[in-house]
Amino acid sequence: MAGVDERTINRQRKVRDAYYQAYLRTEAIEIAGVDDVLAELSHYVRMAIVTTAKRADFVLIHQERQITPYMEFVLVREDYTLAKPDPEPYLTGLQRFGATKEAALVVEDSSRGLRSAVAAGIDCAIVHNDFTRSQDFSRARHRIKSLAELKDLVLDAAT
Hints:
Helix content is 43%, strand content 11%. By secondary structure, the protein is α/β, with parallel strands linked by helices. It has a single domain, classed as Rossmann fold, CATH 3.40.50. Strands 3-4-5 form a three-stranded parallel sheet, with helices on both faces. Helix 1 (6-26) packs parallel to helix 3 (55-62). The N and C termini lie far apart (52 Å). The mean pLDDT is 85.
């Protein structure tokens, strides 16, 4: 930023990070039904999380949740160089899976994530939520309103 020294920027980032982590510790951000959907899907498909969250934030978000056992791996912001909407996070995930673009489906809830998946050449299903409802999802191949719809979409493709 013009006119702001690096020390000030770093100090403000620490304040922001502390505020965000306090939010994560106190707010209910659970997605209803996610455990059941992932438990069923885990019998048919391999899954991973590719997130722009920093490792410390991811740990806070998921310490009381039970979804990571269904995942083969988790990629956080520190695991790749360029963040979404760059395709690198999803291309890194594909490489880690040893999978092709054609065999993968990205599930996203943000336009940045959608743009990342599209740039990586991977089909994307958008799960709508109130926080991102005003974002542009026109490039998504699938638009779903609930995780139950995701389950149906994935199971139809897997069987």
